[in-house]
């Protein structure tokens, strides 16, 4: 997003009626979340005590979404703006920073970030001195307190596997970073994988940070936010046990997956699936695989007996369909970067996770 476009958007704001403001005529805190999944988690914590809206519409691709003038109005009027961080909202962050500044919160600060898979020689991201307004020492204390709550809520709080560290200590192209993210390397193997929410423990970490954010913004509602977060963590723990049982029922030799892009690494690590291939390289959806990579992936699908290739509703599946046809396997769409419409089966975060887990389990059995 260029500054020229930002200026154009700012000029368009002047043409929008005052009644279009997100916070119009409301005493409740107004929270804008970058996309629908994050908005739903925030809404579970906020309840009726704050207004939560999603900046991106349902079905939008968060990796490529271009903000509108109306989006800039919402960002400017919001009391807080929630983003995933780790450069997930890659095309949106410059506008978010311009419009909301210090009101932007990267909710994954306490999440153990995994590297983008794809290389046997993955080079871990080096630790930074912190990438948000709080110093690393304060983030360490906050995250330690949150981890204690995670351990109390979940039967298996740690999924194991390769972890680079918590987001607050990593230079992953977050909001409030001092430099622009290096687009040439932001999505290479070994870089930060931002698709954290497919592990329910990370959705719980989001909820705890959102609880603290809302409580600081609106102290009178702190008890409500705490109670809502506690109830949501209990739901997430029950969901986690349910999904684990579902995936455990798949024969071990069939727990191999190929995905359209790197969107299910956290889910795979959490529930014991082996991710043997990814069609779109890196963590974005804006790259294209080489012919050689496509041929190698067809060979992998055939030699490993991969039952299905999993695509997504927010990105093109043309190459995935070609590989599935050549390999004679099923093509199974999942919701990854967006919830469904309310009646689509994945209208909330809990339903979204159940929908995807059921689709994966059915395809792999």
Could you characterize the architecture of this molecule?
- Helices cover 41% and strands 12% of the residues.
- The protein is of the alpha/beta class and 365 residues long.
- The strands form three sheets. A four-stranded parallel β-sheet has the order 2-1-3-4, sandwiched between helices.
- Strand 10 (308-312), helix 10 and strand 11 form a beta-alpha-beta unit.
- The protein is globular and about 60 Å long.
- The model is unreliable at 18-24, 119-130 and 175-187 (pLDDT under 50).
Q: Can you tag this structure with a few keywords?
A:
alpha/beta, Rossmann fold, 2 domains, four-stranded parallel β-sheet, 11 helices, 41% helix, globular
In total, the number of domains comes to 2
Rounded to an integer, what's the Rg over CA atoms? 20 Å
CATH-defined topology of the largest domain: Rossmann fold
Helix content: 40-55%
CATH superfamily of the largest domain, please?
A: Nitrogenase molybdenum iron protein domain
| Euclidean distance between termini CA atoms | 44 Å
Number of helices: 11
If classified by CATH, what would the architecture of the largest domain be? 3-Layer(aba) Sandwich
How confident is the prediction overall: mean pLDDT? 86
Shape: globular
SSE arrangement, N to C = HEHEHEHEEHEEHHEHEHEHEH
- How much strand? 5-15%
Strand order of the largest sheet: 2-1-3-4
Instruction: State the total count of DSSP E strands.
Output: 11
* Biggest beta-sheet profile: 4 strands, parallel
Low-confidence stretches: 18-24, 119-130, 175-187
Structural class, from secondary structure content?
A: alpha/beta
Regarding CATH, which class of the largest domain?
Answer: Alpha Beta
């Amino acid at each position: 997003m260029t500054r020229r476009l930002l200026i154009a958007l700012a000029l368009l704001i002047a043409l929008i009626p005052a009644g279009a403001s997100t916070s119009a005529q409301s005493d409740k805190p107004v929270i804008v979340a970058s996309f629908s999944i994050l908005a739903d988690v925030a809404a579970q914590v906020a309840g009726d005590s704050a207004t939560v809206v999603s900046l991106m519409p349902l079905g939008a691709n968060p990796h490529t979404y271009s903000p509108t003038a109306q989006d800039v109005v919402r960002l400017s009027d919001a009391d807080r703006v929630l983003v995933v961080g780790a450069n997930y909202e890659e095309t949106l962050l410059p506008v978010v920073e311009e419009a909301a500044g210090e009101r932007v919160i990267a909710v994954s600060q306490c999440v153990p970030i995994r590297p983008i898979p794809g290389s046997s020689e993955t080079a871990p991201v080096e630790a930074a001195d912190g990438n948000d307004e709080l110093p690393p020492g304060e983030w360490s204390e906050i995250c330690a307190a949150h981890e204690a709550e995670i351990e109390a809520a979940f039967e298996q709080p740690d999924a194991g596997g390769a972890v680079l560290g918590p987001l607050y200590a990593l230079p992953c192209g977050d909001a409030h970073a001092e430099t622009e993210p290096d687009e040439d390397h932001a999505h290479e193997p070994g870089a930060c994988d931002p698709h954290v929410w497919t592990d329910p423990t990370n959705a719980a970490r989001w909820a705890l940070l959102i609880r603290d954010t809302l409580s600081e913004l609106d102290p009178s509602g702190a008890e409500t936010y705490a109670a809502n977060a506690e109830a949501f963590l209990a739901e997430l723990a029950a969901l986690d046990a349910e999904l684990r049982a579902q995936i455990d029922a798949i024969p071990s030799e069939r727990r191999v997956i190929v995905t359209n892009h790197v969107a299910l690494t956290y889910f795979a690590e959490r529930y014991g699936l082996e991710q043997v291939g990814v069609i779109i390289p890196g963590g974005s959806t804006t790259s294209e695989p080489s012919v050689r990579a496509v041929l190698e992936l067809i060979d992998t699908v055939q030699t490993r007996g991969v039952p299905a290739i999993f695509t997504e509703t927010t990105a093109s599946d043309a190459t995935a369909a070609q590989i599935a046809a050549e390999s004679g396997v099923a093509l199974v769409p999942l919701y990854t970067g967006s919830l469904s419409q309310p009646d689509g089966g994945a209208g909330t975060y809990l339903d979204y996770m159940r929908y995807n887990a059921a689709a994966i389990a059915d395809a792999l059995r």
